[in-house]
Amino acid sequence: MVDKWFMDDGQLYMSPDAVEGNLRLLDRHLEAAGSSRGRVSRGDDIKSTARLLCPPDRSGEFNGWATEYVRDTCKVVSSADAIIVLGAVQGPVAAQGDHFSKLVHKASLVHHAIDAASDPAVELILKRKCAGVCKVMFTLRAAGDSLDKAHLQAYDLLLRDSLGRSLSGDVGDDSWIQATCGVKDSGLGFRTATEVSLPAFIASRVAAWPGVRSIFRDLADAGLADEDVLAHAYQQRTTLAQERFCAVLSAEQAAAAHASILEAAASTEHFWQQMLQGQQVSSNRPGAAVRIGQELVDAAGYQDSESPTTSLFGPSKLQNLLCSLHDDRRLMQLGERLQREGKHDDIRRIRELRSEHTDHSWMWVVNPVHGPVLPADEFSIASRVRLGAPLLLDSMLCEVCQKRVLDVKCTHALCCSLAESTIGHNRVKEVIHAGCSISDPGACMEAVGLVDSQPNLRPADILTRAAIPNRTAALDVGVKCPEAAGAGDDCTQTMVEEKLAYYAAILPELERKGITYCPITFSSFGRRHGTTSRIMQEAASRAARFRGQLNSKQMLRSWSATVTTELWRRVARMVKACLPKVVGSEQLSQVDEG
Ligand SMILES: [Zn+2]
Predict the structure, then answer these.
(1) Mind listing the pLDDT tens digit for each residue in 322-357?
(2) How many angstroms separate the alpha carbon of residue 400 from the centre of ligand 1?
(3) Burial of 469 (0-12, 13-18, 19+ CB in 10 A)
(4) Which of 108, 198, 219, 470 ranks highest by number of CB atoms within 10 Å?
């Protein structure tokens, strides 16, 4: 039997003349339970506050509500003062700004503490998941439409500064815009308060509406307020925020935003009605479809809203959809400017990264249980290349070829350093072979004697029966940089055509033996050719069946993460090879280890 209870942030609304009577009733019940709110006259520290909710110029009409008893048991605050309800400030805009500044300071301490991890991959995940805009999200949801721009920008500066510390230096203006976009849109998911403020506010208002409407009805039933007046004020503020959000979007994007908002409102209403009827609430909550114990270890990136392994629901889903529309707009503007400035390599890189065939899961592989982990320096270089951020103060002669200029972003390195390119290609090949070998233990690498007319020819990096139904596949793995000479608009397709042309003469002979020659190509930035995606899906589903698993998602996820990690390791090592070798650095690291 529970005979004591604790009420945190409890709120009672009543008419001014009923305050003392209700407080006396509450206190009688508290005393019967052996508890008390305390008394000023007894020298107690009083926690309760009482406040007249009314425009300041009309407060004179209600004089006398704060009786001696009310003052003895509550701190009586002015109607004009701000109050904190459930952690969010209600009241003057200036008070909200002050509160936000305190949150920024607190978040800054968290960011500096995370720096101690000394691992950029871990830091990026923690900074996004535990110390990103989420630190101020509650305030943005409550008041994102009214916070001062300068306050929001203070938080954004903190984030950019923190990203620079994790990635060995500031990333530059263009790369920062990219970093603040979602991961699937080429960014790092370092969402700024400025960009998130309206999506967070709108999503929260839409999701809260059925509950808020119910409170408005209760207030009306108690004779405390007019339901229609309250509902109108609520909806008007929400609509104004939506209009401000859509004003900067294209007509098509604004229509998409409206559709998402309507859909979220309908689904919230449905959710609320189910709850009222005491029904089991169905939703696509993360983990709902996963049986307990089905996965011993959560997938890499699980619970990070930027990761494709996490399914969002409710306000977070709508907020992400709205943020994604914002990303579209900002990346379009960035693209137009890069075009004017002739930065075509940046345009190509962002396009590669935004493709639906690009896998970003390497960014979450920080635990060896999920696959090979990039060391800190390689992760940092890979992340800077992803963002097109400078790695050098000034361009210099390439260490490898000693002929070409190594630009500050080291784009040249992705087309140079043949040795590291080949090592990286071989690692990707080994990982593809490992995936195929699960359901086809006979899969072999570099098979010889496939072509009777030219027995020394080795067209198959991997010869396997796991890739194409009822056929033996000769998989030829290729990685190409979009900046390579003759890469064309789609470097993965160009490479497929090059390989097919190279082996054209022997393909009929292979076909007669039941072998299908199949190039599987990747861009340096991790984009897969459509055929590559299909082959990996087929091999993963065979592997899952072979292991008796119900679905192949988990298998494909970890296989893709390993492949993409090797692709980015290749990038980092090619860049490292082309960077100038500093005399004495090896001795220094030996001293370190000693
Ligand atoms: Zn070079």
Answers:
(1) 999 999 999 999 999 999 999 999 999 999 999 999
(2) 5
(3) exposed
(4) 198
